[in-house]
Specification:
Layout (H helix, E strand, L loop, with lengths): L7 E4 L10 H7 L35 E3 L2 E5 L15 E5 L7 E5 L9 E11 L5 E11 L5 E12 L4 E8 L6 E7 L6 E11 L34 E3 L3 E6 L7 H7 L8 E6 L7 E5 L9 E10 L7 E9 L2 E10 L5 E7 L8 E6 L7 E11 L1 H15 L6
Pfam family, one: CBM_4_9
GO molecular function: endo-1,4-beta-xylanase activity
Organism: Gossypium aridum
């Protein structure tokens, strides 16, 4: 999902008691002392603003008061309060409830499943207060006559100058009626509005992928993969034991060999994991800072299990990326031979913490790991290789 819906209250028209506080009064006072003009109004200077008469150039056309009066102004306080945009601004005055304010119906101009950005230029006046919160709210009546109040944005306004109120909303359904209004300051304080804009929110452009030139394709990011330095760089995940042993394959697993060629050889050393009390326990290594965005990383390792299992066991190479689990490949087998685990992954957001670990067999079953390789691959070259291998497997149809 691209934008989030803010919390709202709902109530059926004939069940006003379910609305708390001042929301109950909103259902009772639905008319305004201001008469809504029938003039058509206009959009803002050819923009995609769905608000009609957004800067009050057509006086109060298309606007109405929500339980209060609205007035048009060129200035107030002997010219001390002037509009920031255009020549006019409006005030919601004689407010007796915090939800009283100025509103406009936008039914038919707002479309479902489209994100909208709301920007209002507002300030307060009177009431013997210097600042107060002003909130932009959406009142939505659904096809089944249920009502929803959607909080769009809230900002602290002052009596010293204009401030900008900004937020976003999205409607999932096709409502029967939609009204946007401003509310919030205590009774006796006027809400002043100079401009209101509601338009389609522009999606942020996706980050540009870096030009992949001279990347270290095929270079293993795992430290001490061949255990040339014992088990340094490795640590046990959970309360298990790690030891180095000899007797693992010296050839790369088939999938890694296809990518890296025959020049790579393993040492024959492997990590033996014992005293495993749970399936997730195994050898682990931190690889934070070694992964690059948008590169495809291939995963390859030899794995083996010890005696004691009575059913097929799954061995999995996993990554914890900022606490999120990513599958790097897995294999299922029920014998004590060496098997290949292989897979691939890539990241589109730079992580802070990355840990790779090998897990999977049942508690009490020993785990053996040799030659873990995680290396970036050239995707285009790899696709060509996979296609070539597929063409070898699939015979051409007889003519």
């Amino acid at each position: 999902p691209y934008w989030l819906i803010f919390p709202f209250l709902t109530a059926k028209e004939n069940d006003k008691s379910s609305l708390a506080g001042h929301y109950e009064l909103r259902a009772l006072i639905v008319s305004s002392v201001c008469t809504k003009s029938t003039r058509k109004g206009h959009l803002a200077n050819g923009s995609n603003n769905i608000i009609l008469n957004p800067t009050f150039e057509d006086e109060l056309s298309n606007w109405s008061g929500k339980g209060c009066n609205i007035l048009l102004h060129e200035s107030m306080e002997d010219g001390k309060i002037l509009p920031l945009y255009g020549k006019f601004f409006a005030s919601a005055t004689n407010r007796t409830r915090s939800w009283n304010g100025i509103e406009q119906e936008i039914t038919g101009r707002v479309r479902p499943k489209l994100a909208y950005e709301v920007t209002a230029i507002v300030r307060i006046y009177g009431g013997n207060i210097a600042d107060a919160n002003i909130q932009a709210t959406l009142w939505v009546q659904s096809q089944d006559i249920n009502e929803q109040y959607i909080k769009i944005a809230i900002s602290q306004a002052t009596d010293k100058g204009w401030v900008q109120l900004q937020g976003k909303f999205l409607l999932n359904g096709s409502p029967l009626k939609v009204i946007i209004f401003l509310e919030g300051p205590p009774p006796g304080t006027d809400i002043l509005i100079n401009r209101l804009v509601v338009k389609h929110a522009e999606k942020a452009p996706p980050p540009l992928r870096p030009f992949m030139k001279n990347e270290a394709f095929g270079v293993n990011i795992i430290e001490n993969s061949n255990l040339d330095d014992g088990i340094n760089g490795w640590f046990p995940l959970g309360n298990c034991s790690l030891n180095m042993e000899f007797g693992s394959p010296i050839e790369l697993p088939p999938m890694a060999r296809n990518s890296l060629g025959m020049q790579e050889r393993l040492s024959g050393r492997y990590i033996l994991v014992t005293n495993r009390a749970d399936t997730w326990m195994g050898p682990a290594q931190m690889i934070s800072g070694k992964l690059k965005l948008y590169l495809t990383y291939q995963v390859s390792a030899w794995v083996k299990i010890g005696p004691g299992s009575t059913s097929p066991q799954i061995v999995n190479v996993a990554l914890s990326i900022d606490g999120n689990w990513v599958n790097g490949g897995q294999a299922e087998f029920n014998n004590e031979s060496w098997h290949e685990v292989g897979g691939s992954f890539r990241i589109d957001k730079q992580p802070s913490n990355v840990m790779v670990y090998i897990q999977g067999p049942a508690a009490g079953v020993d785990l053996m790991v040799a030659g873990l390789y995680i290396f970036p691959v050239d995707r285009r070259a790899r696709f060509k290789l996979l296609k070539k291998q597929t063409d070898k497997v699939i015979p051409s149809s007889p003519s």
